[in-house]
């Protein structure tokens, strides 16, 4: 990501897929990893997203220091169940380092290793309660796929050859 793209994200602010977290206000690396892990679980259980470390809630870039990306990736992996595979990008912004920690949804419900399940709701990450989970599992495991919305799909995902094959089968079956 380049500086211009980061500036646009900062201008747009936090949303369903973007969270800013202060690096300097956290007391320790353990605290940073704790809140990053929770946000990533919320994103993974929704549409995916990115936590920008080193940016305050008001958009001020304060930067990050003293980090090891590989250790952070492994810590996130170890703190989630099933384990999340986060990607970290280092962005140099006016002499300060911003870390963009991203996760993509995979259709699996993720929790912390101590059993807390979270989801992204607008600009915040909230608990994913048992009654919501049971509805989530029921709709996700429905055998009728025709009634389900496929996240992030478009008309370009339709295979026209398969549509024509289906039309031909129907024409033969019901002349």
Task: Describe the 3D structure.
By secondary structure, the protein is α+β, with helices and mostly antiparallel strands. The protein contains five helices and eight strands. The chain has a single domain (3-149), classed as 2-Layer Sandwich (Methyltransferase, Cobalt-precorrin-4 Transmethylase, Domain 2). The strands form three sheets. Strands 1-2-5-4 form a four-stranded mixed β-sheet, with helices on both faces. A two-stranded antiparallel ribbon has the order 3-6. The chain has a two-stranded antiparallel sheet with strand order 7-8. The longest helix has 16 residues, at 29-44. It is elongated. The chain starts with a helix and ends with a helix. The mean pLDDT is 89.
Q: Helix and strand succession? A: HEHEHEEEEEEHH
Mean pLDDT: 89
Q: Could you say what the CATH topology is called?
A: Methyltransferase, Cobalt-precorrin-4 Transmethylase, Domain 2
Output the radius of gyration: 20 Å
Strand percent estimate = 15-25%
Structural class: alpha+beta
Strand segment count: 8
Morphology call: elongated
Number of discrete domains: 1
Q: How many DSSP helices? A: 5
* Name of the CATH first level: Alpha Beta
N→C terminal distance: 55 Å
Main beta sheet strand tally, sense and closure: 4 strands, mixed
**Under the CATH scheme, which architecture would be assigned?**
2-Layer Sandwich
Strand order of the largest sheet: 1-2-5-4
The CATH superfamily turns out to be: Schlafen, AAA domain
- State the share of residues found in helices, binned by percent: 25-40%
Poorly predicted runs of 5 or more residues: none
């Amino acid at each position: 990501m380049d500086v211009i793209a980061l500036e646009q994200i900062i201008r747009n602010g936090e949303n369903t897929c973007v969270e800013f977290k202060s690096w300097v206000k956290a007391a320790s690396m353990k605290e940073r990893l704790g809140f990053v892990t929770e946000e990533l679980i919320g994103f993974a259980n929704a549409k995916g997203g990115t936590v920008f470390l080193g940016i305050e809630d008001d958009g001020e870039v304060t930067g990050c220091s003293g980090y090891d990306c590989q250790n952070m990736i492994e810590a996130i992996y170890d703190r989630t169940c099933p384990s999340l595979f986060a990607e970290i990008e280092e962005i140099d912004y006016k002499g300060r380092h911003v870390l963009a920690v991203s996760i993509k949804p995979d259709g699996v419900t993720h929790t912390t290793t101590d059993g807390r399940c979270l989801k992204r709701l607008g600009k915040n990450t909230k608990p994913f309660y048992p009654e919501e989970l049971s509805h989530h599992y029921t709709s996700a495991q429905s055998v009728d796929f025709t009634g389900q919305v496929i996240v992030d799909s478009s008309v370009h995902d339709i295979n026209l050859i398969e549509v024509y094959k289906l039309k031909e089968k129907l024409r033969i079956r019901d002349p």
